[in-house]
Design brief:
Elements: H1 3-10, E1 13-16, E2 27-30, H2 34-40, E3 45-49, H3 54-62, E4 67-70, H4 78-87, E5 91-93, H5 98-109
Helix pairs in contact: 3-4
Length: 111
Amino acid sequence: MNIKDVINQLELTVHCGNNGIENEVIGGYTSDLLSDVMGNAQAGTIWITLQTHKNVMAIASLKDLAAVILVRDLKPDPDMAEQSHSEGIPVLGTSKSAFEISGALFNLLNK
């Protein structure tokens, strides 16, 4: 499954990083602690968080993540959006909580 499929199935908004919507997805990781994601997220996963700053993109790039989903209608900071475009890692959005979107992503990937 790729990011485009996830966007369509979960009705997500694409904030930035459109050039990465064909990235393949193998799973998800939910955390707001940058060090936790850096130590535990796997390449190809989607990171679900409420963090909206450019350090998120630095870790997403370092870990080769497929995308980032911002919860509760949060929007990326301008420097996060710029980094998203240059790294080709989409930043997506949802009005759902981290709990809700994590469950929805889990169910989608485990059909």
